[in-house]
Amino acid sequence: MTLKAVGRAANKLVLEIRRQFREITGLMEGTAKPDTQRCIDIATKSALKEMILPGVVAIVSPFLVGIILGVEALGGFLAGATVCGVLLGIMMANGGGAWDNAKKWIEEGNLGGKGTATHQAAVVGDTVGDPFKDTAGPTMNILIKLMGIVSLVFGALFVSLHERFVGLF
C-alpha cells in the first residue's frame, strides 16, 4: 500500500510539474519561477491522505483479532506481524539503499557510466529503491508500533470479553 501511495503521489507531482512547464511562460528558459508551494502542497496532502488506509488497517486488525479470537491469538498475531514487519522493513531499507548506491557507483564511471544501458537499468532500480528505503521500509516500524499500542490500550477489554464469552461456550 505504501509503495503504491508513493507512486500515486509522484504521478500527481509529475502532472503538476508538466502543467507548470506548459502554462508558466519562461519557466523552461529559467526566466520565470515555478510554483513550488503547489508542489509542496501536493506532496503534503498526498502523504497524509495515502497513509490513512495503512493506519486504519494497523489499528483495526489487532482490535478485531483481540475481540474475535482472543488474547492468545492476538499475541500470535503481534509476534507474527513483528517478525514479518521487521524482516520486510530491513529488506526494503537495505535493498533500496543497494539500488541507490548501485546507480551512484555506475554514475561514477563504473560499468560504462552515464548514458549506457546499464545506467538506464540502474535508474529504473533506483526508482523502486527510493520508495523502498525512504517510505515503505521505515513505515513498517511505525505500523508495528501502532499495532502494539492498540493491543496494549485495549488489552483489558480483550481479556474481559474473553472471560465473559468463555463461560458461554
List the helices and strands and how they pair.
Layout: H1 2-23, H2 36-50, H3 52-68, H4 71-107, H5 117-153, H6 155-166
Helix pairs in contact: 1-2, 3-4, 3-5, 4-5
Short summary of the structure?
This protein is mainly α and 169 residues long. Helix content is 83%, strand content 0%.
Structure description:
This protein has 169 residues and is mainly alpha-helical. Helices cover 83% and strands 0% of the residues. The chain has helices at residues 2-23, 36-50, 52-68, 71-107, 117-153, 155-166. The mean pLDDT is 90.
Question: Any key phrases for this structure?
Answer:
single chain; 169 residues; mainly alpha; 6 helices; elongated
Can you summarize the main beta sheet? none
Strand element count: 0
> Spans with pLDDT under 50 lasting ≥5 residues?
none
Proportion of residues in β-strands: under 5%
Secondary-structure element order, as H and E?
Answer: HHHHHH
Compute the gyration radius: what is it? 23 Å
Number of helices: 6
Q: Average pLDDT, to the nearest integer?
A: 90
